[in-house]
Fold this protein.
Amino acid sequence: MAFLKSVWPSRARGLWRLILVLNVTSLDAPIVAVVWFVVLTCENDHSANIFSVANRKDIATGLVLAMTVWLIYCGDRLLDSFRSGAAVRTARHRFSRRNWRLLLLVWTTVFGIDAVVATIYLPSAVQLFGVVLALAVGLYLLWVHAFRRRSAMQWKEPIVGILFAAGVVGAYATNAGMMNGGRGVSVGVLLAGLFTLNCWIVSRSESVWLLRVGGESVSAGHIHDRFLYVWTIGLVALSVWGLATEWLAWTLGAAVVASCIALSGLVYRMQCVTSGKASRFALLADPALIVPPMLVVGTQLLYRSWMHVR
């Protein structure tokens, strides 16, 4: 693929190539959203196993969630790529700026498909939640891109983490109707903390690299590595407390803890390499939210399947 040479100077190969393609095309974010939607679904559907088939409503909700997340992330990056010269120095923003016409065409097409699927297949509760979330995302985009406030960029990661968690938890809760208000808020806070940690790690690595090449960084460059470790420990402690008090099922708790361990290992690894390589390892931040929960859910499904045929 020709665009890889223009956005990644070292000519990514093998698995790095796949990770880079997912990153610059904004496809990693919807994968993260769907994976955690599946985690919540498997957590509460005790009959789920590898022999069971997901119902049409769950499939439609997951599909709409994936398309909506991609629309938001792709749109945000398109706006970011034209906001400042510093942003264009990152691979994903350079790709968005150089291919904005194609991305705009794809974005419009996906938006139409998303609207049709949501209107036909989703319950009214999910549709209403989607409208509310769309308004919140619209206010966020207006705050960041229209007003272009420096304070908006400094709070961008927590806001993205909160909105992302609200989308995943809200989509599941309104679709399944199996999560009470108090527990839903608790799970939302936990996932918001996890997704914010992910955003901080990515933004911090990019901020260090931008400062090195003389660009302006107004995002998470002020976040210290020690703070990231403390934040991770807090998330693990909250997960353990949730498991002990039984408001958190072991599937979600184990997935959060596993992702926290992966992200903390990534932070440590990034400390041991140069700034240039740190920006490359930052590409693993989203896989750290994909692979661990998939392993947890896969283990659970295999165990349930074994018990089913036993």
Observations:
- The domain at 22-303 is CATH 1.10.600 (Farnesyl Diphosphate Synthase).
